[in-house]
Amino acid sequence: MIRIFAFLLLFISSVSAQIRPGQLWPDTDGQHINAHGGGVLFHKGQYYWYGEIKGKNSLAEVGVSVYSSRDLKTWKNEGIALKVSEDPNSDITKGCVMERPKVIYNAKTKKFVMWFHLELKGQGYAAARTGLAVSDSPVGPFVFQKSLRPNAGKWPLNFEEEWKNPRAGEDTLKWWTPNWYTAVKEGLFIRKHIEGGQMARDMTLYVDQKGKAFHVYSSEENLTLHIAELNDTYTDFTGRYITVAPAGHNEAPALFYQDGWYYMITSGCTGWDPNAARSFRAKDMLGPWEELGNPCVGEGAELTFKSQGTFILPVQGKKNAFIFMADRWNPKNHIDGRYIWLPIQMEGGKPKIYWKDEWDLEVFDKKR
Ligand code: GAL
């Protein structure tokens, strides 16, 4: 009898240790996790998952959530990390758009630093700003500091001198025509936004091997990614940044490092609808970046298994173990959006992602 009981316990715990992409994912209170467009921080033995608290629609009515876990499967709701403001004059007033929050820890200041994509209330997606909030604890409360468009007055490091001067008629070029594409690749939007700062929408944060932090954002009307260096406290931009894949329409950037290379996985740009992911690699965060193609393999690969990436999670205590975290958005009822977590494996120097109905962290122990 005892043996049967022990076996049952073992069976239940091993079944519950599975990650099931696309299924409801209950937290320890039994509620589907509400942390969309999220990212994970590991700090002192615990993982913290931050994400957008969604309701039926996608406006920020509550703020950014935080969940904690030791095993990446069982998540405890730690409440609201960053609350929207009740003050109608605040940049983060209730009803704004707050997306893709990411948190990194600054060992020098001992602060948890959150950046997120911010759209001002009532302006749709026109503001294209990034917001900063800081906390003394990983579970918050994060205190909102400021919002801005990055790198005002600064040209990218990989920008040609002759691109700095506006060209006759460039403002009236018809979108999506060959001449317009050329103009975009040669800095059309950078010139336009040089004074007020560059547009910043989908984003992530990444701390490189040397401890330098970078803010990676879709800029220039989502046409071009920027990788921008943050200062030592991670609370401002240094003005050093590069453009990646100009006019390539990359969103949803997510990064990891393995064996001397930084890898980045992005999506295309089709709103809440899924599209094919792309991948890149570079020896240095400030480039040059080389395109590697769609990392997804097999049935559903052309739509990233009906999802869009948000973060790449390094599994602690395992070598070269990375989880691709993505969102299967549900724009009809955002709170029901599902999480697609899949292991990344390297094949011929390229990251590859295969669909799995369910899996556990042991996949990383098998010879790959
Ligand atoms: C997606 C983006 C999401 C959200 C959405 C709004 O392309 O990745 O974070 O901004 O558009 O339509």
| Count of DSSP H/I helices | 3
- C-alpha Rg, in Å? 21 Å
Ligands, deduplicated: beta-D-galactopyranose
Q: Summarize the amount of helix as a percent range.
A: under 10%
Largest sheet: 5 strands, mixed
Query: How large is the share of residues in beta strands?
Result: 35-45%
Class by helix and strand content? Answer: mainly beta
Count of extended strands: 21
Overall geometry? globular
* Unreliable runs: 6-15
Spatially, the strands of the biggest sheet line up as: 17-21-20-19-18
Mean pLDDT, to the nearest integer, reads 95
Model description:
The chain has helices spanning about 1-15, 180-185, 190, and strands spanning about 35-45, 45-50, 65-70, 75-85, 95-105, 110-120, 130-135, 145-150, 205, 215-220, 225-230, 235-245, 250-260, 260-265, 280, 290-295, 295, 310-315, 320-330, 340-345, 350-355. By secondary structure, the protein is mainly beta. Strands 17-21-20-19-18 form a five-stranded mixed beta sheet, with no helix packed on it. A four-stranded antiparallel beta sheet has the order 1-2-3-4, with no helix packed on it. Strands 5-6-7-8 form a four-stranded antiparallel beta sheet, with no helix packed on it. Strand 11 and strand 12 form a beta hairpin. Bound molecules: beta-D-galactopyranose (GAL). The site of beta-D-galactopyranose has 10 residues, from strand 5 and strand 13.
Strand and helix layout:
Elements (H helix, E strand, L loop, with lengths): L1 H15 L19 E8 L2 E7 L10 E7 L6 E8 L13 E10 L4 E9 L9 E7 L7 E6 L29 H8 L2 H5 L10 E5 L5 E7 L4 E7 L6 E8 L6 E8 L2 E7 L10 E5 L7 E4 L2 E2 L10 E7 L7 E7 L9 E10 L2 E5 L14
Parallel strand pairs: 17-21
Antiparallel strand pairs: 1-2, 2-3, 3-4, 5-6, 6-7, 7-8, 9-10, 10-11, 11-12, 13-14, 14-15, 15-16, 18-19, 19-20, 20-21
Bound molecules: beta-D-galactopyranose.
